[in-house]
Design a protein that fits this description.
Blueprint: H1 4-15, H2 19-33, H3 38-54, H4 58-75, H5 78-95, H6 98-114, H7 118-135, H8 138-154, H9 158-175, H10 178-194, H11 198-203, E1 212-216, E2 226-228, H12 234-240, E3 247-248, H13 250-257, E4 265-269, E5 275-283, E6 286-299, E7 302-308, H14 312-325, E8 329-337, E9 343-349, H15 366-374, E10 391-393
Parallel strand pairs: 2-3
Antiparallel strand pairs: 1-2, 1-4, 5-6, 5-8, 6-7, 7-10, 8-9
Helix pairs in contact: 1-2, 2-3, 2-4, 3-4, 4-5, 4-6, 5-6, 6-7, 6-8, 7-8, 8-9, 9-10
């Protein structure tokens, strides 16, 4: 990623004169890099630690450990992350740096939240908030408030979650922190949905400026999936589209749902770009094979025409998901391209997908590979070779009989 801020930080690093300045500049560079290249940011954190220890720069060492702990959290390496954060905490206490300690507590909370140890995570977030309030560190304070909003959401305390989120929102806006504002808007949308305030929830998903979509959290074959488009032409839908289209005006969705019991819905941004189904085989979080195929034509949610494409961005993305969630066996992941060109997960199924047999035409027997893996049988490299560019098309046939 190439941004103005990244160039400014790179220039600051080059202009730094002594080693302490360079290490501090490298930390800022790594903090910016972590949002789009986590492996690189991890290496930068390790470099910070080594260089700081070499010149006895204790604060730099502590910040390096904290940054590395953050990266390990995002990698899903929780035990190692906690061990590294413990080193950072010892440094912060040694030099009595409360600002660093607050950031360490936030990262402790992040890991314990992912581990579902919510009471422990809550304690760390609250301790961090106390410190940042005393220091009048408003940006770090807003991060604490945001974290507390998320943890109270996890605890089904939506009133408290909303209170913390709105306090955080005001501070993020004052700093024009676009990345965190996007994340916070998503949280606020979820909170308002849980509180049955659907109109308010949709505003935080940027509706009506953007299309949104919803579907049941548990479903298959596009059942319950609808796209809410404020610009939809119902006359066009009625006379120009087949009755199985997925577009629906908000007013119609509300009229159906408001007086009926309905399953828990997942509401999200609408992803307008190409859609890929990705058949994966994994063993305890390690990818064995990842096979993307673009969905060129679908019928009732099932892919009937597609092409196997070696899309490196999607393959890496799915490998990261498999590692983070420690998935095992046959896994189906669906991704779709967003407005900004990035591919985002739209669905994940810890099972075989409906069109998995198409892989045979591209040279891979995905169910058999999962069985071999489970039986600890050696898998020949030849069995993992995908014939990229293979296309498939399903069609109806007729049988005549008396």
């Amino acid at each position: 990623m190439d941004t103005i801020k990244l160039h400014q930080l790179e220039d600051a690093y080059e202009r730094a004169i002594d080693e302490k300045e360079k290490i501090s500049a490298l930390i800022e560079l790594a903090l910016e890099t972590r949002s789009f290249d986590l492996p690189k940011a991890t290496l930068m954190a390790e470099e910070v630690i080594q260089r700081a220890i070499k010149i006895n720069f204790t604060l730099g060492e502590g910040r390096g450990y904290n940054l590395l702990g953050f990266c390990l959290w995002l990698h899903g390496d929780y035990d190692e992350g906690l061990a590294v954060l413990n080193k950072a905490e010892k440094v912060a206490l040694k030099i009595q740096d409360q600002s660093l300690l607050a950031r360490i507590f936030i990262n402790y909370g992040n890991i314990y939240r992912d581990l579902a140890q919510l009471s422990t995570a809550l304690k760390y977030y609250e301790n961090a908030l106390v410190i940042t309030e005393k220091l009048e560190d408003h940006l770090s304070q807003s991060v604490c408030l945001f974290s507390l909003a998320n943890i109270h959401y996890d605890l089904y305390d939506y009133e408290s979650a909303l209170d913390y989120a709105l306090k955080s929102l005001a501070i993020f806006k004052s700093f024009n922190d676009s990345v965190r504002l996007l994340q916070l808007n998503n949280t606020l949308g979820n909170i308002y949905f849980k509180m049955d305030d659907y109109e308010e929830a949709l505003t935080y998903l940027d509706y009506p400026n953007q299309k949104i979509c919803f579907k049941p959290c548990v479903s298959n074959g596009s059942r319950g999936f609808r796209i809410i488009d404020p610009a939809i032409d119902e006359m066009h839908l009625l006379f120009k589209e087949k009755p199985n289209n997925t577009y629906m005006p908000l007013e119609k969705a509300k009229s159906i749902l408001e007086n009926q019991h309905f399953p828990t819905l997942l509401v999200s941004e609408y992803l307008p770009g190409p859609e890929f189904s990705v058949d994966c085989v994994a063993k305890n979080g390690k990818s064995i094979v990842v096979v993307p195929r673009v969905r060129l034509s679908m019928k009732e949610g099932i892919s009937v025409e597609g092409e196997f494409i070696q899309h490196k961005e999607i393959i890496k993305y799915c490998k990261d998901i498999i590692k983070l969630l420690h998935l095992h066996g046959n896994i189906g992941i669906q991704v779709k391209q967003a407005e900004d060109g990035k591919y985002k997960i739209s669905e994940i199924n810890p099972r075989v997908q409906g069109t998995i047999s198409a892989g045979l035409g591209a040279g891979v027997n995905l169910p058999l590979l999962a069985i071999y893996s489970e039986l600890n049988r050696p898998i020949d490299e030849h069995d993992l070779q995908v014939i990229w560019g293979t296309k498939f098309k399903r069609f109806w046939d007729e049988v005549f009989y008396n």
